[in-house]
């Protein structure tokens, strides 16, 4: 069972560029290094990270990653003065976790994000973020980019995020990660709940954006586009593993030897390309603008508007969430409130801002924004 009711010290660590005491007790006194805030000797239940680019190490040691300890939730997307999670603005405050430790990736637009694998150069971090076995953790509000796995072995997956524990990923973007198995996320013997997250420009030999091995993954309101792989274009599940897709788009992922997905997958209220045997799979071009750059926005007339599932409660793989799917307005991304404990389970409320027009409220597929009508 996934629960954040864990016996850890109370408190919060703040991370940003600051000139105070740097003890992490407030924004003015923030720790300047995310790696320092995540060290095992300082396991606070929350870490708030202000906008900026953060790398696992100042050296060129590819084995060093951001490791999230048991019971820790790490939140990005802050300007550096907020007092609550609902005060975040992710689009105005991009918080980038980058594997470009040798500082030579292509960055012509200055955003420090590898929009595609062609932007990745040199010797990058093998895994940008890791979650160890038995850990229960959350990663929320980050852009994870530039992870590269180049050697085979037990850790040859998840260049962006490699998890062997229980991890909730919310409000994130994975771009330009390259792995042998599961370029963006690799789940090995653990459990993943991924909500309101997009994957594009990632490349792998197996399970392009996400590969689950001997574990389970659930994707809700996610968009998986423009990833490349030899086997299992967008999402893969090895023997003994499974993945569930709800209100999720998997489109335009190239695979040389398989369909857009492979393995044991449960698909509901989703749009998965090349899957014709699943009742309720829409299988239509979602009409997404700027998909090649990873900035996902539904065009006017997209068949995905108002095609998502109704209010949904799911208890997949020990997670419990109440998902309330309302209509998106013309400029706002899906927002997630802080999780609450209910009867020993984590309950997460997702709510989109109400539309100003008269369109009926239902659901919308994928992590995309709808243009005004």
Would you spell out the secondary-structure blueprint of this structure?
Blueprint: E1 12-15, H1 34-37, E2 46-50, E3 52-54, E4 66-68, E5 73-78, E6 95-98, E7 129-131, E8 136-140, E9 143-145, E10 161-163, E11 166-170, E12 173-175, E13 178-181, E14 185-188, E15 191-195, E16 198-200, E17 203-206, E18 210-213, E19 216-220, E20 223-225, E21 228-231, E22 235-237, E23 242-246, E24 249-251, E25 254-255, E26 261-262, E27 265-268, E28 271-272, E29 288-289, E30 297-298, E31 312-314, E32 321-323, E33 335-336, E34 340-342, E35 345-347, E36 349-351, E37 369-370
Parallel strand pairs: 1-2, 2-5, 3-6, 4-7, 5-8, 6-9, 7-10, 8-11, 9-12, 10-14, 11-15, 12-16, 13-17, 14-18, 15-19, 16-20, 17-21, 18-22, 19-23, 20-24, 21-25, 22-26, 23-27, 24-28, 30-37, 32-36
Antiparallel strand pairs: 29-30, 31-32, 33-36, 34-35
InterPro entries: Pectin_lyas_fold, Pectin_lyase_fold/virulence
Protein name: Right-handed parallel beta-helix repeat-containing protein
Structure description:
This protein has 373 residues and is an all-beta fold. The chain has a domain at 40-298. Helix content is 1%, strand content 34%. It has one helix at 34-37; strands at residues 12-15, 46-50, 52-54, 66-68, 73-78, 95-98, 129-131, 136-140, 143-145, 161-163, 166-170, 173-175, 178-181, 185-188, 191-195, 198-200, 203-206, 210-213, 216-220, 223-225, 228-231, 235-237, 242-246, 249-251, 254-255, 261-262, 265-268, 271-272, 288-289, 297-298, 312-314, 321-323, 335-336, 340-342, 345-347, 349-351, 369-370. Strands 1-2-5-8-11-15-19-23-27 form a 9-stranded parallel β-sheet, with no helix packed on it. The chain is globular. This is Right-handed parallel beta-helix repeat-containing protein.
């Amino acid at each position: 069972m996934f629960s954040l009711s864990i016996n850890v010290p109370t408190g919060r660590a703040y991370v940003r560029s600051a000139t105070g005491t740097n003890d992490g007790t407030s924004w003015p006194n923030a720790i300047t290094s995310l790696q320092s805030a995540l060290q095992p000797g300082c396991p606070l239940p929350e870490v708030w990270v202000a906008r900026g680019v953060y790398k696992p190490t100042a050296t060129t040691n590819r084995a060093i990653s951001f490791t999230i300890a048991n019971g820790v939730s790490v939140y990005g997307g802050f300007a550096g003065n907020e007092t609550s999670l609902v005060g975040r603005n992710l689009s105005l405050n991009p918080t980038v976790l980058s594997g470009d430790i040798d500082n030579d990736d292509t960055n012509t637009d200055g955003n420090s994000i590898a929009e595609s694998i062609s932007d990745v150069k040199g010797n990058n971090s093998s895994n940008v973020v890791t979650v160890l076995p038995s850990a229960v953790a959350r990663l929320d509000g980050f852009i994870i980019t530039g992870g590269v796995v180049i050697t085979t072995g037990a850790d040859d997956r998840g260049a962006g995020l490699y998890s062997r524990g229980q991890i909730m990923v919310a409000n994130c973007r994975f771009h330009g990660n390259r792995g042998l198995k599961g370029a963006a996320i690799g789940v090995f013997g653990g459990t993943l709940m991924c909500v309101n997250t997009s994957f594009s420009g990632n490349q792998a030999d197996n399970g392009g954006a996400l590969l689950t091995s001997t574990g389970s993954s659930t994707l809700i309101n996610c968009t998986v586009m423009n990833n490349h792989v030899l086997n299992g274009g967008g999402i893969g599940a090895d023997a003994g593993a499974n993945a569930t897709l709800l209100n999720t788009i998997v489109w335009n992922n190239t695979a040389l030897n398989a369909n857009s997905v492979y393995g044991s997958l449960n698909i509901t209220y989703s749009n998965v390309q090349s899957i014709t045997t699943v009742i309720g799979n829409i299988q239509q071009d979602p009409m997404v603008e700027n998909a090649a750059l990873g900035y996902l926005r539904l065009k006017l007339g997209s068949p995905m508007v108002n095609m998502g599932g109704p209010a949904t409660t799911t208890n997949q793989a020990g997670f419990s969430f109440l998902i309330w799917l309302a209509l998106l307005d013309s400029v706002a991304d899906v927002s997630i409130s802080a999780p609450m404990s209910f009867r020993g389970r984590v309950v997460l409320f997702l709510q989109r801002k109400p539309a100003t027009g008269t369109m009926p409220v239902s659901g919308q597929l994928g992590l995309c924004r709808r243009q005004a009508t």
